TrEMBL record:
CDD domains: Tryp_SPc. The keyword ATP-binding does not apply. SMART domains: Tryp_SPc. Its main location: secreted. It is found in: Secreted. This is Chymotrypsin elastase family member 2A. GO terms for biological process: proteolysis.
Amino acid sequence: MKVVALIVVAVVFAQAAEIPKLRNFRNPADLPPRSVLFPRPSQAQGPGYFIPSGKHAHTFSTRGICGQVKYRQSERIVGGVEAVPHEFPWQVALVVDNSWFCGATIIASDWILTAAHCTDGGSSFEVILGAHNKNIVEPTQVRIMATEYTMHPRWNSARLQNDVALIRLPTPVSFTPEIAPICLVPSTEEDHVGDILLASGWGLDSDSATSTTANLRKVTAPGISVEDCQAVYGNGVLDSVLCIDTTGGHGTCNGDSGGPLSYINNGVYNQVGLVSFGSASGCELGYPTGFSRISSFIDWIVSVTGLVV
């Protein structure tokens, strides 16, 4: 399969759910995944788009609080199952322009990490924190409207490269057992070939599904080499991409875009990738899924946010 046959992984599944009437709120179940077919033309950016100065009033670290799980976890899984409610307190449901759905992660009290193809051309972002069932308003949820965002300066929408973006919240969020940051890995992080990695999101649970899932789901899969990924998608897959083996259809799908790929080290969750692309042929055929490799972009993330890893 050629690189031109890629489709970006975006959001997940949905089931009917009653939600309170909220101003400017649409049930995420009604929203299609933010998917991108190759090639994609450049987008006009919204008024909140900014180019970082690289200067910070302060730096900060989330070590000691990031990547900590406070709710009971199920055993290691393969094939995809529903997550324990609030098992991953850094998981974000992202509604773009009240029209599209993506995933994202909390990396600091005022910063959200996602894919550039999710934010490209966007103007407003409803950031849903503390959710398990994204289609209802749960008491643990915090919903924040954000407009400020930036994308990696080398984001290439035509080749789907450097697919990383940051959203700045208008006010910092308070951390709770259901809302907390994930740890990010340093630039020296290993390549994770053969390691069991964990992806989570609300994306489609099958190729026949017509909407994203209501409840957060998770799946584990081994990392593979860039060369093995290039054998499927071509040399457009750069070293800044981390791929997983989805043999048997055990991987991410449309609607998971921007969500995390994690590695558990001594009980602490470390984000090693974010969902970028998968095969246009479908999610259940066993083709690799591609993630933006966090270690390749951590210097940029640090320069924008001031986060110390």
